[in-house]
Amino acid sequence: MKLAFPDLVLPPIHIDLRWVTRKLGMKGGLKEIETQLGIRRPSDIEELTGYDATVLWAKYLRGDKRALDQLVQYNTEDVVHLKAIMEINYQKLADILAASGLDGLECAGNARPQLSRAAG
Fold it and tell me: Which of 7, 21, 49, 90 is the most exposed place for a label (fewest CB within 10 A)?
């Protein structure tokens, strides 16, 4: 990435939501997690998959400008929904932590509340 974008400044942390959602008892990829949380995509891209995204990219490379528009919309929904998933699950974890009577520093040690049982 540094070669392609030498001036790119990356955030100091990265959170993989796959592990956060699993800790809260959810399973599956992004689309399945969206469904479990009641997050919906616009109807014109609701059925698209990651494979479809690669097909759209190939169509764009062959000159189909509409394919790029649809791909950008699909990818934008991914980013917007990842933010929503983070916010929803942050609140779920905060609620679990508050109910446990522990603070964040205690949870960083050995006294961790059982999150998977309290998911909901």
Answer: 7
Answer yes or no: are the C-beta atoms of 20 and 113 closer than 8 Å. Answer: no
Query: Is the full-model pTM beyond 0.90?
Result: no
Are residues 37 and 87 in contact, defined by beta-carbon separation less than 8 angstroms?
A: no
pLDDT tens figures, 52-65: 999 999 999 999 99
Closest by CA to 56, choosing from 41, 46, 66, is 66
45 neighbors 74 (Cβ within 8 angstroms): yes
Closest to 89 (Cα-Cα) out of 32, 34, 12: 34
Place of tokens 């980013």: 79
Distances in Å between the Cα of 118 and the Cα atoms of 27, 92, 101, 114 are 15, 9, 14, 7
